[in-house]
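Lecture 7 notes: from sequence to structure.
We start with the chain below.
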Amino acid sequence: MLKTNFRLAFVHLILILGGIFMILPFVWMVLTSLKTPLEALRFPPTWLPEIWRFANYSEVFQEISFFRYFLNTVFITLLTLFGIFFTGILAAYAFARIEFWGREVLFMIFLALMMIPLPVYLVPSYMILFNLGWIDTYWAMIVPWTVNIFSIFLLRQHIKTLPQDLFDAAKIDGCSRFRTFWQVVVPLSKAPLITIGVFNIIASWNSFFWPLIVTHSDVIRPIQVGLAYFSREQSTNYTLLMAASTLTILPLVILFFFAQRHIIESYVRSGLKE
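Predicted structure tokens for the same chain:
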């Protein structure tokens, strides 16, 4: 018993130390955002600011169109998320519960596409959007990302774990295939759907490379691209840079705290087995 307790204490100590090292950069970012410009350049640096300058956050909104970037990102993220939910749950249900010729081969091809890096299909994707006239529009940042293969994979694995008795009972009660999907599959898939939602919100919120290529106008830029241009203009003003970075990641931190229970529940209940 003593040996087990010692092992658990050692493991918890390692985890606590790892958590502290991971959170230190974020603490430094927030504290730097509250310093004066001269204090941020002081050497040796200090952790706590001598003067707590909350006006840095209001100056961010004066220097750049931060609110516009924020609204653009929210708009793009919500529409992309809706598309991922719509295509993901339907495709996953088809791959998990509908028998059709070539189903497993097609699913393997889907999974193989996950291994192709973005630079490989960057030029063809750009040319397609250019021919459609979607360059420098919201469509270019939304439509290509409304299908997520990993989301389909995760939902398929979850749906395959649902008991066959549920589907047999729904069929006996006279439910159509769509009604079975809507009243049986969707309510039982809330945990993986929330997990997929959180992951895709984070990915869409942090998207930088693709929006940088397909946008030219400042009015439709998402927050990460806007922050990059702001960083180039204010490269020596570390306090404003840290304030803008804090405002950028704050919604994601709040989202994770509200959804972490559902993320853990999704991994525990759905699994990754046939």
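Points to note: The two ends are 37 Å apart (CA to CA). Residues 270-274 have pLDDT under 50 and may be disordered.
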